């Protein structure tokens, strides 16, 4: 498509987004147009409102993409996922530490091979888009080639991807180890090459405390100081055995999070995946440092890790985004991820409304990534990433949708019944990048 042709895009349909949090995340400002109009210019939202009010002002000969009968929402945001683990999704029978040794590490060894990494990065990006995910915070492997491959694949689609090379200098197979020095210098090169190139952003990525020495964490902290607007992405407090191991490896630190905090790795662009078994002081530290949590329900259930306490995160005012954590997680799809989140909450007798779920997968995720000035809803000026959901993708859904009482009920049924069949179209930066095959 030429730039000129792309310069004004008008989209008609039913729209839903969230504009903000009123009092607490259970009180959200919902914006809903039964018949709405979205204008996109040069990849950004140029207008948003009611169709009947906006149609008169449409530029002459402006083509309208008509998605009436569908529900158009902001692109989903996945705040924690591993691209080299796509091919080992759904591997049987282990908890975290055994699963890493038996499945994740062997798969990750392949990503030093440039052409293999390039093929898998393209596949991964395709999977995100067919699931309506337009932004993701992604683990690569220890190999710089894996990072080049992912950023190249994302850049071709103009996607906002945050990613980085894994730092890991102990307690893993030797083919997957770097050193404090090579981890530092390779990350630095990658930051210089990719950070802020187009929509791409870099995350300094120590895998988790058990696979980095103190020296490596210190070097990670040095990098973060040198490049304060990069991200810090790691795992925290996922599994009880992992936590005991961290206590053994870092007896001088007060708790698991204190290992990261000590090396300057907490902060408003730090994202910690899981956070299932936190002590009071760790909650306090997350709050004090404005760090964020990636909530990974399918992974937490699949690996038998535990139940995330979202109410506690709300009480402590800690930012939370939704995450698939593929391949510990069992789906790329955000609707399925929210479905499992709902059940995690039910098991703890915590309420989780459709709107709150939707918030966490869109604007809440954007806030967790400090990107809410750019993405997360349809505010004019933001980047035009959006998804056209088909609420009647299956015969059963068509029946259920007919009976939906209101937009919240429709959204809830989509979350509980939905999957990639519901993703009719995905747009990134105003361009159509995925269209569902018609069956
Ligand atoms: N902790 C350290 N590495 C990993 C990983 O690859 N997946 C998950 N779920 N947890 C981890
Ligand atoms: Zn993970």
SSE order and pairing:
Blueprint (H helix, E strand, L loop, with lengths): L2 H4 L2 E13 L6 E14 L2 E7 H4 L9 E11 L1 E7 L13 H13 L5 H17 L2 E7 L4 H13 L3 E5 L1 E2 L12 H15 L6 E6 L7 H13 L4 E6 L3 H10 L6 H7 L7 E5 L5 H10 L2 E4 L1 H6 L7 H6 L3 E4 L11 H14 L6 H8 L1 H6 L17 E4 L5 H8 L4 H11 L5 E6 L2 E5 L4
The site of guanine (GUN) has 11 residues, from α3.
Task: Describe the fold and architecture.
Strands 5, 6, 7, 8, 9, 10, 11, 12 and 13 form a nine-stranded parallel β-sheet that branches. Strands 3-2-1-4-14-15-16 form a seven-stranded mixed β-sheet. The chain contains 17 helices and 16 strands. The relative contact order is 0.15. Helix 6 (180-194) runs parallel beside helix 7 (214-226) and helix 13 crosses helix 17 (407-417). The chain starts with a helix and ends with a strand. Residues 1-6 have low confidence and may be disordered. The protein is an alpha/beta fold. It binds guanine and zinc ion. Residues 80, 82, 235, 273, 325, 328 line the site of zinc ion (ZN).
């Amino acid at each position: 498509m030429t730039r000129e042709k792309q310069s004004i895009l008008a989209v008609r349909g039913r729209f839903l987004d969230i504009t903000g949090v009123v009092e607490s995340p259970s009180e959200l400002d919902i914006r809903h147009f039964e018949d709405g109009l979205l204008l996109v210019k040069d990849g950004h939202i140029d207008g948003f409102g009611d169709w009947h009010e906006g149609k008169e002002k449409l530029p002459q000969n402006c083509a309208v993409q008509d998605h009436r009968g569908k529900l158009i929402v902001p692109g989903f945001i996945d705040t924690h996922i591993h691209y080299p683990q796509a091919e080992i999704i759904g591997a049987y029978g282990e908890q975290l530490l055994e699963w890493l040794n038996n499945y994740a590490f062997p798969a990750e060894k392949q990503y030093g091979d440039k052409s293999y990494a390039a093929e898998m990065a393209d596949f991964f990006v395709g999977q995100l888009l067919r699931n309506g995910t337009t932004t993701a915070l992604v683990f690569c492997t220890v190999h710089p080639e894996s990072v080049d491959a992912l950023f190249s694949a994302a850049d071709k689609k103009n996607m906002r991807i945050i990613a980085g090379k894994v730092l890991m200098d102990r307690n893993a197979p030797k083919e997957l180890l770097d050193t404090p020095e090579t981890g530092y210098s390779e990350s630095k090169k990658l930051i210089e090459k990719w950070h802020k190139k187009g929509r791409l952003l870099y995350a300094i990525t120590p895998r988790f405390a058990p696979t980095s020495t103190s020296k490596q964490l210190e070097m990670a902290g040095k990098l973060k100081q040198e490049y304060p607007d990069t991200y810090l992405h790691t795992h925290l407090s996922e599994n009880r055995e992992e936590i005991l191991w961290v206590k053994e490896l870092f007896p001088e630190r007060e708790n698991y999070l204190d290992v990261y905090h000590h090396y300057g790795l907490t902060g408003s662009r730090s994202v910690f995946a899981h956070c299932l078994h936190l002590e009071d002081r760790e909650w306090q530290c997350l709050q004090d440092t404005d760090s964020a949590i990636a909530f990974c329900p399918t992974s937490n259930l699949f690996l038998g890790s535990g139940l995330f306490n979202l109410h506690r995160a709300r009480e402590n005012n800690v930012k939370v985004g939704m995450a698939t954590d593929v391949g510990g997680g069992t789906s790329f799809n955000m609707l399925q991820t929210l479905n499992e989140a709902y059940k995690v909450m039910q098991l703890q007798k915590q309420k989780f409304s459709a709107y709150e779920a939707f918030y966490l997968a869109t604007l809440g995720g954007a806030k967790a990534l400090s990107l809410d000035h750019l993405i997360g809803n349809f505010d004019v000026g933001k980047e035009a990433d959006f998804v056209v959901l088909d609420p009647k993708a299956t015969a059963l859904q068509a029946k259920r949708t007919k009976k939906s009482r209101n937009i919240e009920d429709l959204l809830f049924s989509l979350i509980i019944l939905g999957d990639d069949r519901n993703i009719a179209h995905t747009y990134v930066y105003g361009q159509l990048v995925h269209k569902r095959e018609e069956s």
